[in-house]
Design brief:
Layout (H helix, E strand, L loop, with lengths): L19 H12 L1 H7 L1 H8 L3 H23 L8 H9 L1 H38 L5 H17 L2 H28 L13 H4 L4 H10 L17 H31 L4 H7 L4 H9 L2 H35 L18 H21 L3 H34 L7 H23 L1 H5 L4 H28 L1 H5 L11 E2 L6 E2 L12
Antiparallel strand pairs: 1-2
Helix pairs in contact: 1-8, 1-11, 1-14, 3-10, 3-12, 4-10, 4-11, 4-16, 4-17, 5-6, 5-16, 6-7, 6-14, 6-16, 6-19, 7-14, 7-15, 8-11, 8-14, 10-17, 13-14, 14-15, 16-17, 16-19
Membrane topology: Multi-pass membrane protein
Pfam family, one: AA_permease
Protein name: APC family permease
């Protein structure tokens, strides 16, 4: 039985259920490091040469600059709307709601792209290993069912599942790295990929365009503020940990990939068989059994990413539902699992409809579905990072007393410039992401987020004119008001007597 709770503090999620490690699992799992390395790193080598490892490190350093202002602002944003809340604080409610729609659309497109890739990879893997030959969309729908069950249940269950899957995919790459290093690579270990003549080349812009896509989504740490242990500490720690891990791990593994074939042959090997680059390395240095394990773990990597995106999208629906911008039912939580179960079911339905539509259209699940939707989602999320950086700078420059922070403002300005350059590079090299030179597809990839932002801004203006009480409360929900002081540290933790839930089963 559903019992709407529209007044006072809306339904609260499972308080103090996630620590920094759990949130890092959600964010890094969404990045799908194994899938990114196997599917994307060879492309980085093709477009940038052996200097590609430095490109990932550079993208990580720029993301870390963004994280400085982002985490500083986390202390002043007691709302789990992430981009929506952060941009609203500095640039206003109209820009905030426009950003919210871009965020929901961006994450949804990234998830849909992952469904396409997951379906194709799983179909090939199951056919080769067990002889089961089913269309890609059947496996995508099976994944949607699994994600739906896990998303419906407690966030604690999802965190445990993601933790196991993420550790496994990281371990298989580390096994490859240890084997390559132990055997000295193809022609000896060296640091040539980091030499200036290999890094500062005319093609490094293309490498950065590819590299930044691998970091998209790390700001989702703020989406879990409502469920974090001591959010003022947990969210910043998780953000820095996620960015730092991804930067170092990506850089290290791509360097290992270069060493596996040698600096003289790595690019040629990537050109000859980009899809099989890492599998060939694993076969050469570890063996066929490990190669088979890697193929299976790519499937689980995709499933982990789907679950992480699912939880991120439902948290946006939950945040917007609390403020009645979207139907308030999206903010209802399950009495037992304390999950935003209606938002979860809604998100699953959206994913299923999208998969079926693409299946009916008979598009290629990788070259069209995955490439086209991922490119648009990446542009949208990166553009929101750019706007968030500006919002951080504005917020701390004009802030009064406790909210004035010159260092945070400078970090915001620096990130605004650096991410602006990154966004320009991604758009300029958009054909690398879309895998096509079709001008219509490439234009839609960068223009769609702009159109969605404008629609969101128009919606905000309509709400201001027709529903002023809703407009007045946009971005004002204080999720920390449910918290009680920790007697040991003084920080706020979960209020044990908070009333949760709307459903018993």
């Amino acid at each position: 039985m559903t019992i709407p709770q529209h007044s006072g503090q809306p339904n609260a999620l499972d308080r103090a259920s996630l620590n920094s490690r759990d949130i890092v699992f959600f964010v890094v799992a969404a990045a799908a490091p194994l899938t990114v390395m196997v599917a994307v790193a060879p492309i980085a080598l093709l477009v940038g040469g052996i200097g590609a490892p430095a490109g990932y490190l550079c993208a990580g350093l720029i993301s870390m600059v963004f994280a400085i202002g982002f985490t500083k602002m986390a202390r002043h944003v007691h709302n789990n709307g992430a981009f929506y809340s952060y941009i609203r604080m500095g640039l206003g409610k109209v820009a905030g709601l426009g950003s919210a729609l871009v965020a929901v659309a961006g994450y949804t497109l990234l998830q849909i792209s992952t469904y396409g890739l997951f379906g194709a990879v799983t179909a090939a893997t199951m056919k080769d290993f067990v002889g089961v030959d089913l269309p890609w969309w059947v496996w995508a729908l099976i994944a949607a069912a699994i994600v739906s069950v896990l998303g419906y249940r407690s966030i604690r269950v999802g965190a445990k599942v993601l933790g196991v899957l993420l550790v496994l995919e990281v371990l298989v790459l580390l096994v490859l790295a240890i084997a390559v290093i132990a055997k000295g690579g193809a022609s000896g270990l060296n640091l040539q990929p980091f030499y200036p003549e290999n890094v500062f080349t005319g093609s490094m812009g293309a490498v950065l365009a590819v590299s930044f896509a691998a970091f998209v989504g790390f700001e989702a740490t703020a989406l879990f503020r409502n469920e974090a242990v001591r959010p003022d500490r947990t969210v910043p720690r998780a953000t820095y940990a996620a960015v730092g891990f991804l930067a170092l791990f990506y850089c290290f593994i791509v360097w290992v990939a270069v060493m596996a074939f040698g600096t003289d042959n790595a690019v040629q090997a990537a050109a000859a068989d980009p899809a099989g680059y890492f599998f060939t390395a694993m076969q050469t240095y570890v063996g066929s059994a490990a190669t088979d394990v890697m193929r299976v773990l790519i499937v689980s990597s995709g499933l982990a990413a789907l679950l992480a995106f699912h939880n991120a999208i439902t948290r946006y629906g939950y945040a917007l539902g609390r403020e009645r911008i979207v139907p308030v039912q999206l903010s209802f939580v399950h009495r037992k699992h304390l999950s935003p179960y209606i938002a979860s079911l809604t998100q699953t339905a959206t994913a299923v409809v999208a998969v079926l539509c693409f299946a009916f259209a008979d598009v290629d699940p990788v070259l069209q579905l995955a490439a086209w939707t991922a490119s648009t989602g990446t542009v949208g999320i990166l553009a929101l990072q750019w706007l968030t950086s500006l919002s951080v700078a504005v917020f701390f420059i004009r802030g009064k007393e406790v909210a004035r922070d010159r260092g945070a403002a400078l970090a915001g300005i620096a990130a605004f410039i650096l991410i602006g350059v990154a966004l320009f590079l991604v758009i300029e090299k958009i054909e690398i992401a879309t895998l096509t030179t079709d001008p219509v597809v490439n234009t839609v990839a960068w223009a769609a987020p702009v159109v969605i932002f404008l629609l969101g801004a128009a919606l905000a203006l309509w709400i201001r004119a027709r529903r002023p009480e809703v407009y007045a409360g946009m971005g004002s929900t204080d999720i920390d008001s449910d918290l009680i002081p920790d007697p040991q540290s003084g920080a706020k933790t979960a209020a044990t007597d908070a009333t949760h839930g709307v459903r018993n089963d």
